Amino acid sequence: MAIFRLHSLVSTAKQMIKLHNKHQPDVPRGYLAVYVGGIHKKRFVVPLSYLDQPLFQDLLRRSEEEYGFNHPMGGLTIPCQEEAFVDVTSRLQIS
Fold first, then answer.
1. pLDDT-derived band at 7, boundaries 50, 70, 90
2. Coil, strand or helix at 6
């Protein structure tokens, strides 16, 4: 059940990315824009390859729990502090 849910979540995220990137021409092909932080969200552009990483998938699960598929910024919103997101993505760059 958890594997099916994860595949569904990643698939839905990819669909959101396709729709979002049409309206975000400054996002290079192979990347996606995400919004992170508390009240004042910061925009990050990250590689699509992060979608396959367990650490990033955990952030996607949190996003689904927090927002469902209705993201307030119009793009994928990650519900964590900016410092935690930078820490996760820096670990993904090393791997």
1. low
2. helix
Cβ neighbour number for residue 69 with a 10 Å cutoff: 12
pTM of the model as a whole: 0.69
Q: For 28-58, how does the pLDDT look when each residue is reduced to its tens digit (9 = 90+)?
A: 999 989 999 888 889 999 999 999 999 999 9
Question: Cβ neighbours of residue 19 under 8 Å, at least 6 residues apart?
Answer: none
Distance (Å) of CA 13 to CA 17, 38, 41, 53, 94 = 6, 21, 19, 13, 23
Residues with Cβ within 8 Å of residue 69, at least 6 apart in sequence? 12, 16
Residue bearing tokens 């390859």:
49
